[in-house]
Amino acid sequence: NGETPFYLSVKGGHEKCAELLLDAGSDINVLTQNNSSALQVAIQNGHLSLVTFLIGKKIDLVPKPEQKNSPLHLAVIGNNLPVAKSLLDANHDINSINNRKETPLHLAADLGNVELVEVLLKAGCDLKTLDKHGKTALAVASRSNHALIVDMIIKAERYYTMTLTHPAHSNDGSDFSLSFKQDHSTQTRQVRSSLWNLAYNQLKPCEWKKLAIFWKFTDEQIKAIEEQWTGKKSYKEHGNRMLLIWLHGTLLAHQNPAKHLYEDLVAAGFQPLAGKLTQSTLHCLPGGCSVV
């Protein structure tokens, strides 16, 4: 089956033995007859220390054509966040494609793994790659009904678009901790509550989409949000999610959400709603907020 003593030592989790065999001249990149490498079996067995050891020994991180998945794909499939981070730290190709034309983000989105998606998004992975079915990672998350992942990817798409068009708004680490996960911070609690009230008690059906279009949400992003269906009043949750995504971008741009929401409601034709926004219902956030 082509399993060399070196491969078997890694498979069994025996780092010292593997090191001795390498020192004796074993080929670190040899494949078995099933096209498995030592790095792949270490990842599949969850041996983080061996993965780190093999990376340190300069094992090839680029999969051979006959291998179905890259090491990073395997880490995602195994929901192994520490291994995924180690591979990314070693400059593994974050946008590597497997035999189904899926990126690691496609797999993480399909699995609904928030932490892995967060790591990949923060590392700047490609959000537009299409799998063999012509689906982006956003479409995959939407199809799999992972609303949290959908919102994270939309936040990332909008953030990276903003940094391209307005480089001054890119995260510099001074005030904001970049994250695309759901916001549970106490600093944004009141503004989030006000946005919830706007979505659930004031916006009528389809009005959230009018606002989304005004804020340059793409058709694909709007469709992905709408995919979550909880009944005839789903539009309320759709609106709330859209508003929270907007808030995320506003905070990362170091802008005052109260001021911008008021001005944008007026500009988008929602003057009566804008008139209801007072300092008591939607106040300016204090400086030094963190998007978490």
Structure commentary:
The protein has two domains: 5-146, Serine Threonine Protein Phosphatase 5, Tetratricopeptide repeat; 149-275, no CATH class. It has helices at 5-11, 15-23, 38-44, 48-56, 71-77, 81-89, 104-111, 114-122, 137-143, 147-165, 189-202, 207-214, 219-226, 234-252, 257-267, 271-275. By secondary structure, it is mainly alpha-helical. Mean pLDDT is 91; it is low at 284-292. The protein starts with a helix and ends in a 17-residue tail after the last helix. The longest helix has 19 residues, at 147-165. The protein contains 16 helices and no strands.
* Global outline: elongated
Radius of gyration (CA) equals: 23 Å
Structural domains: how many? 2
What CATH architecture label of the largest domain applies? Answer: Alpha Horseshoe
SS-based structural class?
mainly alpha
The fraction of residues assigned to DSSP E strands is under 5%
- CATH superfamily membership of the largest domain: Ankyrin repeat-containing domain
Please tell me the overall pLDDT.
91
Q: Give the biggest beta sheet.
A: none
Distance between the termini: 48 Å
Helix content percent band: 40-55%
CATH topology of the largest domain: Serine Threonine Protein Phosphatase 5, Tetratricopeptide repeat
**What's the β-strand tally?**
0
Please write the string of helix (H) and strand (E) elements: HHHHHHHHHHHHHHHH
ANK repeats: 1-33, 67-99, 100-132
Keywords: ANK repeat
Protein name: AKD1B protein
Domain Death: 207-281
